Amino acid sequence: MNPDVLRAEGVCKSYGKKEVLHDLDLTIQPGKIYGLIGRNGAGKTTLLGILTAQNTLDSGAVTYGGQPVWENQAALDHICFSRELQPTLFTGPNNLKVKHYLKSAAIYYPNWDQEYADRLLAGFKLEPKKKICQLSKGQMSMVTILIALASRAPITILDEPAAGLDVVMRERFYQLLLEDYAQTNRTFIVSTHIIEEAASVFEQVIILDEGRILENSPTDELISQFHYISGREDIVDQVCRGLEVLSVQQMGRHKTAAVRGSGVKLEAALSADVDVSPMNLQNVFVALCGHGDAQ
Amino acid sequence: MVRSLKYLLRSAWVSLGAMLAFAAIVTAGACLTGVPQGANNIFRTYFGCFPLLTLLMLFLYTYGLCTSDLNLALSFGARRRDYFLALQLILLLYAGVSWALQTVMSAIPDLFGWTSVDRWSFLMSLGGLTNWRYPLACLTIMALGCLCGLLYTRSRAWGIVVMVLAILGGIAATTVLLLFADARPGSPGSLVAAALTCGAVAVTAVCELLIWRTVNRYIVR
Amino acid sequence: MRGTLNDQSLIYLQIAQMLEDDILRGIYREEEQVPSTNELARVYHINPATAAKGINLLVADGILYKKRGIGMFVASGAEQALRDKRKSAFYDEYIKPMVKEGASLSLSGEELLTMVRKAIEEGEEK
Questions:
Q1: pLDDT confidence of C1, banded at 50, 70, 90?
Q2: Are residues A115 and A146 in contact, defined by beta-carbon separation less than 8 angstroms?
Q3: Residue ranges making up the domain that contains B127
Q4: Neighbours of C82 (CB within 10 A)
Q5: CA distance B146 to B159
Q6: Which residue in A36, A41, A223, A251 has the most C-beta neighbors within 10 A?
């Protein structure tokens, strides 16, 4: 069961007149933990749905191992898309019991590991007889995580697995994820809002902004391109001339600029009388995607 | 396709079990309240028009097959055409079980010599016994049920309108169909039966087409 | 337990630094095994690939070497090699920033040297 490359090329998707994804290209190499980060409404869930043939696309192609994903049993057998559970389904409450949900997952995922699922169920202290609409938000996240891990699918996608979990459970989740990854080396794509905590877990980061992929690169390569330069405003301005300035904050004569650039371009900054400090992934994300919002 | 079939069967056997249990209760109730001796009570009514009650139950069972069940199956990676085919098999299963049930129940009055009060009292004994039109009616009502479920999620108003029309129309049409099913060929009765039969086939075909279209373009939530 | 990791520098660099510090402190002696990538990943909640990157830096510098099927070991002469490496980096990492800071405080070269001598004396007294 060799995982293949999951590739999206030129994907466009609109809901009515609103274009949600624009000419999107994305390649998912096997054996890595990817973080998919983006603001609300950036199109993360839509993109993931399209990658897994659960959503239709208007134009472009999504292939797995060179073959289209759509209606392709071989591809679908290799992919698990564990979505956020919703307390309401269509027009009424979601009355499906947890155990039926899990049983259905067991039917469909060819690599389902029942023993692992049982262990996680006990570990998460979930009651199988409860209905989904009776679960707390945290418990719903735990079910999402359970399905993703127990599916043992070569490409496993988790949509907002940490939403609703308290910090202790989040740490436990990262731990479980890394343990599973260390054991199976399968491909994970984790879509999340809680960026900084999860950053150390991601080998590669995909930033989606307003339907476009801004970045798809290894986490530390991405982060090392960004810095804060702060000091007296005139020196900061001078030093930033060769760099891409993303945002600026000013307090009197003290100016801090978030910049992108490295190597030679940064040399000037390093030797000048300014503070050059690194940005973490969350800072980078906000600098890249926080445009247009009031400071 | 096997997986989708397994998945749908899990809720199907519960529904079918409920249907059979209900039939058993009605039959037992009838026997216990003197219906075989000619008593005319609620159990006689239920027993008498059980084929129609079955249709109602089928309609309700299929409601979620193209909405929540479909959504869940696709979210777990089911192929759309597999689900559609499995759905067809489940519908055939439902129709088959309903037909068998109706056959058994309609044999009971004759077998045990129940007193017949009037012509209408035992609906199923009116030619519908071995008639293939009954399972056809079942399929039609189920296809309408799936469609209603779909419509309801898009527009409550339309969903309810179609549901009411489907139930009332379905019951009326089935009754007439069963009445005239064994009419002499060429008689007005048989023409009515033929027209209704064609209508049922047409409605089923249209529903199936719409269902296939929906399944194929469905976006999982 | 991300206790000792911060966001002041890239994680794999911090991992490499921590291992170097531990070797210099004698926590991992020459020819002894150091934690595996999976162990580091588990303890610090980081991606194993990141831990591997840190370890590979040390392998490239000749500080660690791999024993197939067993794990990563401290190379002989590693301690000395690390000291030499840190010595040559000492100028850039400690001396230059100190001078720069002194300049921003308008300390003269003489004042700076006086302070350095004083610190050395205090250190020797202990």
A1: very low
A2: no
A3: 2-217
A4: 20
A5: 11
A6: A36
Number of domains chain B contains: 1
Residues of B in contact with A79 (CB under 8 A): 77
Residues in chain A: 295
Which token pair is A233?
Answer: 């405003």
Q: Which sequence spans correspond to the domains of chain A?
A: 6-221, 225-289
Which residues, listed in sequence order, are joined to residue A190 by a DSSP beta bridge?
A35, A158
Q: Which of B60, B206, B181, B53 is nearest to B129 (CA)?
A: B181
Residues on A contacting B at a C-beta cutoff of 8 Å: 49, 52, 54-56, 71-73, 76-77, 79-81, 83, 86, 89-91, 96, 100-101, 103-105, 107-109
The 3-class secondary structure across A180-241, one letter per residue, is HHHHHCCEEEEECCCHHHHHCCCCEEEEEECCEEEEEEEHHHHHCCEEEEEEEHHHHHHHHH
Burial (Cβ within 10 Å: 0-12, 13-18, ≥19) of residue A1: exposed
Is chain A in touch with chain C: ≥3 Cβ pairs within 8 A? yes
Q: How far is CA A52 from the centre of its chain?
A: 15
**Residue in the structure block whose two tokens are 């999340």:** A192
Determine the topology of domain A6-221 in CATH: Rossmann fold (3.40.50)
Cα A158 to Cα A83, A148, A191, B211: the distances in Å are 6, 7, 6, 30
- In this prediction the ipTM stands at 0.90
What pLDDT score does A126 carry? Answer: 92
CA distance A240 to A228: 10
CATH number for the region A225-289 comes to 3.30.70.1710
Structure tokens at B64: 């979620």
